[in-house]
Amino acid sequence: MEQQEQFSSRIGFILSAAGAAIGLGAIWKFPYIAGQNGGGAFLIIFLLFTVILGLPLLLAEFTIGRTAQQDAVRSFQVIAPGTKWYFIGILGMISVFILLSFYSVIGGWIITYLWKVVTGGLTGLNEVQYAELFANTIANPAISIGAQLIFIIMTIFVISRGVQNGIEQTNKIMMPALAILFIILVIRSVTLDGASAGVAFLFQPDLSKVTSSTILEAMGQSFFTLSVGVSVMITYSAYLSKDQSLPSSAVSIVVMNIMVVLLSGLVIFPAVFSFGMEPDAGPTLLFNVLPTIFSQMPAGMLFFAAFLIVFLFATLTSAFSMLEIIVAVISKGDPVKRKKWAWIVGLAIFLFGVPSALSFGILSDVSLFGKSIFDLADYTVSNILLPTGALFIAIFVSVKMKKSAMYEELKRGSNLMYGIFQAWFFLVRYIVPALIIFVMLDVLEIW
Fold first, then answer.
1. Mean pLDDT along residues 128-138
2. Which domains are assigned to the chain?
3. Model-level pTM greater than 0.90?
């Protein structure tokens, strides 16, 4: 049984899938993690993981989704009926539920800062005042929760409209706008005095900064930025017609993702070094450091507003995919049920995310396993749930799907050579699981 809804075109699918991948991972998380892990060294490891792990896994999820033409749970039931493999889809639903709960908090921060730029609330402050403003803003319960709710409502509205009228139409506007604004920002950043130091930091590796933790962070980042391991791409590929090429679509998405990561680094690091600031500021880099930098440029707040719009677009397009996974499973393709469940699930995620929003204010003293509620949610998804989901997806494709059937699926709409298919299958069956297990065991100090 095929999905009732489909993307209207290949470009609509690619932009939507790329939008799912290009979000906080590329624009918020990559710069500060790279800044803390040696810049170029982290970039190289991240790129290797993206090609060796991320691309094969992305194609594996595409194969599962379009073969079954069902949601993240029923796809596994169609391919492996009478088995418990559908738990992979349930794990993905749990993962994106937690992910969107704290993701929406950051989305709220973006909305808040965009409002502050428009109303002049970020003008004329110094570095200390910007840091204080951010701390006070995220500690304010009304602002944090209110902005988080606005972000969730925006996400719910798009998902309630369906695949073509909601997800596809919105991504066709947001993704090109994101690219144009990013290019403008990169040109402005790399032409600053002293920007070359930031470019060197991004592209010249300092291998002395590499640790086992750096490697796990890079692997988690490659999964996070491609949205693999949580069945997002299984859901989206189920909406793709059978005459479209899965391999070329996967390569296009990976290339677009890498380009955005590089553009993000070229916006942030040249500006950071140009104004003599440190690149390892952590998660607050974009909200503490960047306003300070942009405020010292001619028309700086205009450029900062453009950056925040890029940031918001990328965050929303990823949020769409997270909510879509859960709604697609529960609504079973029924448009009436879709609207109802989009609101029910979206508001449930909002309520679950309130403690993360408050973990910088009234719940700042609450610590679980040595982490704040927000940090624990981030760590759990990025370093445990995503790699675990990716591992099980690789195993499922290797042991439960017929090799000949997968080749036929991947050949549809493409001229995929059997040798390339063999190389992909070898990576998914042996290299991907081995690397995931090795890195996770090493960092968790199980051996």
1. 86
2. 10-443 (1.10.4160)
3. no
